[in-house]
Amino acid sequence: MVYTYRVEFETDPQTKTIVVSVPTLNYTADFGDTVEEALERLHALAQGFLELLAEKGEPIPPSDPPDEGVYLSLKLEHEPLPA
C-alpha cells in the first residue's frame, strides 16, 4: 500500500540547512544542505517510521488529501496489522 504525505520546508537561520518535515507523521523531520538531500534523508526516516508503526500493529495515518505542494510517497510492502 502507498501512503502520500505533505512535506513542509524551512531553512534553519543559523546553519542555513534545509529542514523538511511531515506533520501527519508526528512532525518527522530531517535536514540537508540541499532540498534533494533533505528529502532523501526524510524519505528514509519516514519509511522507517511507517514500518515501525506497522510492526507494532499501530494505526498508519491516512494519506494527506491532494493539494498544492510537495508530497512524499511511502510504500509498505506488507499490509499493516489490524489495530
Detailed description of the structure:
The protein is an alpha+beta fold and 83 residues long. It has 1 helix and 4 strands, in the order E-E-E-H-E. The chain has a 4-stranded antiparallel β-sheet with strand order 3-2-1-4, covered by helices on one side. It is globular. 17% of the residues are buried. The mean pLDDT is 92.
Task: Set down the secondary structure blueprint.
Layout: E1 2-11, E2 18-22, E3 28-32, H1 35-56, E4 70-75
Antiparallel strand pairs: 1-2, 1-4, 2-3
Low-pLDDT runs of 5+ residues are none
Instruction: Please provide the count of β strands.
Output: 4
Summarize model confidence as the mean pLDDT: 92
Helix content: 25-40%
Estimated structural class: alpha+beta
Largest sheet: 4 strands, antiparallel
| H/E element sequence | EEEHE
Strand neighbour order, sheet with most strands = 3-2-1-4
The proportion of residues in beta strands is 25-35%
* First-last Cα distance: 16 Å
Overall geometry: globular
**Radius of gyration from the alpha-carbon trace, in angstroms:** 13 Å
What would the CATH topology be? Answer: Double Stranded RNA Binding Domain
Task: Label this structure with key terms.
Double Stranded RNA Binding Domain; 4 strands; 83 residues; 1 helix; alpha+beta; four-stranded antiparallel β-sheet
Question: TL;DR?
Answer:
The protein has 1 helix and 4 strands.
